[in-house]
Known about the structure:
Structural class: mainly beta
CATH class: Alpha Beta
Number of domains: 1
Number of strands: 7
CATH topology: Ubiquitin-like (UB roll)
Largest sheet: 7 strands, mixed
Distance between the termini: 33 Å
Amino acid sequence: MLRIDSHISRGPQVTFRIDGQAITGHAGETVAAALLASGLRRLRTSPGGGGRGLFCAMGVCQECVVEVIDAAGASHAVASCQLEVSEGLELRSRTFVDGH
């Protein structure tokens, strides 16, 4: 784990999921930061098949885009560096198939 735990004031712990894997983060932390701290760096697959993850960390490059899944099972894309963690949040990494 890459998170500094001493001398840091954090929000309460929350658990969210990406691709079915439970991840722990802290309220006020971005999804990208929580994923990076947990050791998960590959957030999507590019059209050419390469792994992509956090790059600019400010929402410009879109390398860290993930799918947010709502209660009805619908999803929408969002930059993980622009989304705060929340209890029960469900995410899916993005994989491009056939250039789409």
